[in-house]
Design goal:
Blueprint (H helix, E strand, L loop, with lengths): L4 H10 L6 H22 L30 H5 L22
Amino acid sequence: MEVNDELLNHIAHLARLSFEGEERNAIKQDMKNITEFMNKLEELDTSNVEPLLFMSDEVNVLREDVSEQTITHEQALKNAPKKDSDYFRIPKVLDKSID
């Protein structure tokens, strides 16, 4: 695959990007380097290589779900900008008027 100005313009349009001057040349060179690297990978014989489906052999390694209280109710409310005795106070976010 040849990386030319037409291809660069097309990809930039799809990605909603714009490149000018030296940045354009740098992106073009990066794209050439990537395609050259991919072409080198195509030279490898992978006929006897099993496809990799998972990164490890471990399945569902989970920790026990243990309920524990890490902070108290008072500690949770301590730094709240607005609060009452039991709850956080927040600005009204719903309008109850019906149009």
